[in-house]
Amino acid sequence: MTTPLKEYTHEYFLTAAQCNAQKELSPQMLVQNIIEVATEHANMLGIGFTRLSAERNIWVLSRLTYELKRYPAMHNHYSLTTWVEDFNRHFSNRCFEIRVNGNETIGYVRTLWAAINIDTRKAADLTSLSDITNFINDKLCPIARQSRIKPDGNHTVTTDYTFQVCDIDCNRHVNSGRYVELIVNQNDLDVYDNRMISRFEIAFHHEARFGDKVDVRSEKSDDTMIIEIAKGTEPICMSRLFLSNR
Question: Is 114 found in the same domain as 23?
């Protein structure tokens, strides 16, 4: 029997059609790729959709943090390598290394995954997946773990948005990439022409569904933004961006 890989790498090529206005990989596409690669590796290890759905559970992304020196540029070959860092009955920590052109490491990612029950939409116990500990890898992920994101309530900009059909994924809730798009859109284009998001953090608190109307509240300083997406008084997700000069 073949031993499952403790590390898995997916290769990509960034076409012009996939680029943002800066001719780079966009944050929202990077997050979608991260989810895609995590899903592929979990399936390879036998801890993916098929196994969880037998118990009426699904994996959900709880937190994501990445740090980049730069983003993959148009026509770059780039790759995401992932591994499981640790696991308990509530969460699994999964990390990633991002490389361009085969061998240049340009960044790292930390993700925290939980599971919810499809029927109750409440947190699921992951004890039945305890064999995931056989796949834990001691590979180093050098970026800091995400700390609590707490707005101070002095938001300078508030916009509203109602989730539409194309925002909804196969789990019948809002796609993670859509939240990232709403967050990135809180700056004007010229901001990203001159600055880049060098560290991105997002923490998910509650699900949003089709037709939900949310407020997007932004607090800005010179190098940092905190952005809250909320449905009334209920926070859906919190994000913190660190901007650096290009």
Answer: yes
